[in-house]
């Protein structure tokens, strides 16, 4: 008898169909957003799951779903999953790194440019017919991007891909803050300079946040940090809601404490703080950093490959390509 697996969100049917070659598959073609209790109910009898950031996988769920062996999360981030709880129970967690690096870096860079050059605000201006009545030489002046200082908080794969775009494409000076500085030969590729967080805040013309969400990065950018930034600066968050204090940001944007912001992720998303919705100098997008056709398909395919391998079938049986807690498989984790 084939094992049963669950796919919690709708994505690409042809990719999900690959699971049907090996397993009994239950899915969610209408893409209903399940509560955790509904998810628990649907996971009964399931040995594996393809999950997404909207699914909370914690000790409560794992204890209620004792047959579950593998959780294959679509996304490089997995702050929706309690990794320790999975590991303690021998449940494998996988994610989808690498395949989204360049697409997400493109988007982050674009969002920063949109904020700096007031692109969406200008679009609203044209659509409202205001160009015809109030167009002036000095209308909608923004800040330059080329030749300015790009600050990056979190210099992992995506942070480095953004640094590359800024340094090599736009002649930007790159400064960054990270848990650990990069090796000098990697810094040299982008002319990137490690600085303390306070210096990053003070010196950046355009600050992009790419740090993973954890208890220690919660509100890494709050009122005190925003106060240190230049009034001409922009802030872009493509990391996770909660890394930036959205309420504090809305206040600073309203008061002109910084020039503009670009946000793809929000505290409590898909809800967006009402004060942010009321700000004109913020570009808001619905967590689509990795949303190109090619990349979203690659992410779905990688999660399917992970699940097939985690369940001990297919060409990589027992060796899922991108495990988060490989110790469950008896493999030592790679140092962070
Ligand atoms: C990721 O991969 O973590 C993206 O933010 C999509 O969730």
From TrEMBL:
InterPro entries: D-isomer_2-hydroxyacid_DH (IPR050223), D-isomer_2_OHA_DH_cat_dom (IPR006139), D-isomer_DH_CS1 (IPR029752), D-isomer_DH_NAD-bd (IPR006140), NAD(P)-bd_dom_sf (IPR036291). Keywords: Oxidoreductase. It comes from the Bacteria. GO terms for cellular component: cytosol. Gene3D superfamilies: NAD(P)-binding Rossmann-like Domain (3.40.50.720). One of its GO terms (molecular function) is hydroxypyruvate reductase [NAD(P)H] activity. Residues 6-313 form the D-isomer specific 2-hydroxyacid dehydrogenase catalytic domain. Coiled coil: none annotated. The keyword S-adenosyl-L-methionine does not apply. It holds the Pfam family 2-Hacid_dh_C. Residues 109-289 form the D-isomer specific 2-hydroxyacid dehydrogenase NAD-binding domain. PANTHER family: 2-HYDROXYACID DEHYDROGENASE-RELATED (PTHR10996), GLYOXYLATE_HYDROXYPYRUVATE REDUCTASE B (PTHR10996:SF283). Belongs to the D-isomer specific 2-hydroxyacid dehydrogenase family. This is 2-hydroxyacid dehydrogenase. It comes from Caballeronia choica. The lineage of its organism: Bacteria, Pseudomonadati, Pseudomonadota, Betaproteobacteria, Burkholderiales.
């Amino acid at each position: 008898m084939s094992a049963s697996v669950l796919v919690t969100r709708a994505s690409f049917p042809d990719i999900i169909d690959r699971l049907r070659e090996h397993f009994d598959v239950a899915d969610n073609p209408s893409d209903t957003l399940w509560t955790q209790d509904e998810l628990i109910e649907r996971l009964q009898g399931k040995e594996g799951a393809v999950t997404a950031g909207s699914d909370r996988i914690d000790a409560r769920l794992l204890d209620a779903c004792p047959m579950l062996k593998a959780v294959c999360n679509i996304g490089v981030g997995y702050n929706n999953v309690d990794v320790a709880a999975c590991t303690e129970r021998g449940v494998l967690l996988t994610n989808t790194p690498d395949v989204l690096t360049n697409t997400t870096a493109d988007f982050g860079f674009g969002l920063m440019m949109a904020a700096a050059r007031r692109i969406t605000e200008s679009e609203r201006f044209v659509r409202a017919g205001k160009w015809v009545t109030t167009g002036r030489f000095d209308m909608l002046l923004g800040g330059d991007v080329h030749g300015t200082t790009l600050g990056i908080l979190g210099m992992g794969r995506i942070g480095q891909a953004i640094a590359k775009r800024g340094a090599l494409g736009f002649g930007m000076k790159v400064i960054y803050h990270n848990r650990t500085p990069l090796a000098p030969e990697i810094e040299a590729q982008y002319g990137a300079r490690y600085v303390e967080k306070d210096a990053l805040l003070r010196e950046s013309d355009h600050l992009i946040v790419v740090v993973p969400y954890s208890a220690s990065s919660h509100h890494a950018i709050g009122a005190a940090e925003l106060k240190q930034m230049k009034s001409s600066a922009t802030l872009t968050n493509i990391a996770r809601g909660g890394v930036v204090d959205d309420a504090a940001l809305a206040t600073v944007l309203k008061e002109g404490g910084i020039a503009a912001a670009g946000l793809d992720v929000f505290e409590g998303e898909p809800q967006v703080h009402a004060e942010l919705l009321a700000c004109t100098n913020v570009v808001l997008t619905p967590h689509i950093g990795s949303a190109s056709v090619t990349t979203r398909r690659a992410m779905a395919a990688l999660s399917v490959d992970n699940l097939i391998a985690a369940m001990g079938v297919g060409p990589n049986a027992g060796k899922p390509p991108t495990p988060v807690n490989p110790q469950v498989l008896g493999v030592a984790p790679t140092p962070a």
